[in-house]
Specification:
Layout: E1 3-8, H1 15-23, E2 28-33, E3 46-58, H2 63-74, E4 78-82, H3 87-90, E5 106-118, E6 121-126, H4 134-143, E7 161-162, H5 166-182, E8 187-196, H6 203-214, E9 218-224, E10 227-233, E11 236-241, E12 244-248, E13 250-255, H7 261-273, H8 275-292, E14 302-311, E15 315-325, H9 332-337, E16 347-348, H10 350-360, E17 371-375, E18 381-384, E19 389-393, E20 398-407, H11 413-432
Antiparallel strand pairs: 1-6, 2-3, 2-9, 3-5, 4-5, 4-17, 5-6, 7-8, 8-16, 8-20, 9-10, 10-19, 11-12, 11-18, 12-15, 13-15, 14-15, 17-18, 19-20
Amino acid sequence: MRVSKNVKLDENFPARKALLQWARQFQEVVWFDSNGYNDRYSNYEAVLAVDAFTAIQTDASEAFDKLKEYQETTADWIFGYLSYDLKNDVEDLSSNNYDGLNFPELFFFQPKKIIFLKAGEMELHYLPMVDDELEEDLENILQKRDFQEEFSGDVKDVKMQPRISKLEYLQKVEEMLAHIQRGDIYEANFCQEFYAEDAEIDPFEKFVALNNISSPPFATFLRNYDQYLLSASPERYLQKKGNRLISQPIKGTARRVLSNPEKDSELARNLENDPKERSENVMIVDLVRNDLSKTAKKGSVEVAELCKVYSFPQVHQMVSTIKATLEAGIPPVEVLRTTFPMGSMTGAPKISAMEIIEELEETKRGLYSGAVGYFDPSGDFDLNVVIRSILYNSTSKYISFSVGGAITARSVPENEYEECLLKAAALRQVLEEN
């Protein structure tokens, strides 16, 4: 049982900045921030988990079995990630592309200290072994008014470069279109990597900058010693609350023109009515429905919202919401095993799409297009999709982000490339400006 305390916060207290500043001292950190989005399915405005009491990290071999044992044995809050390459545990697949990051393929930890922000209050939940530190920690947090940059390295310009040229990208999209024309797949998510070598950044400072630009509903900062994720994800992969399952895939993107509200509204309407974007979204909705049906009560899978356009600071996105009721007796991790990787980052049919993705992409996806989230003590969980994200290994000084989109029969390679650049814009801005 955790020791807990609720603290009412002064409305002028910069809780998010103070908590991130305080978290710098820990080797294991997860920070989730909903950025004020009034999501009917969310439980908290923000969550900070630090300092591992126990942890699991492994490659893809039997990864879901190991996670199931860890989650059930711990029976506590655990935070962490599933990398895209856990597909190799679910299906007879492999990942042989270049990996400059070398993150574990699965990582979860049981934090000694968890802090929730909700409705003007801060809830502290500490394991008994550290409950004597609660009051001192609280005092330290409340004193941290400003976010200070504490990066000690030489500040060098970070110049991100593409793993493949524009010409190569266009040729690969043509190859994917040929697969579609042959009937191998209907749709596949195709991604490309941008990277920098011998690069040093302050991950905390860069995360704050990225979050200020994008303000997404599933923002995530994760640290596992020298490995960092800075994510501005707008997408929920899967949530379990009791016997209710919720998945919210995104397919369909349009730029915003905030300086011209009329034009901006027109772009949102055009996205909502675009036949190509809607067909992309509907195909993934069908895939998610099929995945959820593997663990859901018969007849309980339903589409609650189809092709709804939501507006974020940088882009308009088309989001669908699929609900299901979990069949009694099915372990929480089994729901992830039977739906992973998420449909929006693979394609249809799913296995064929993943095989073609592996063949055409040049980089191992790793944590990109995987999922980050948490389990609570009852086995409920909530996980996002790792997109719009910067990955950083501070030991090897390697920085990476990937962007992509769904390729369908109606795709125009040049347009797909432009969509990649649109999705990359905020990430480049954060990394390339000191």
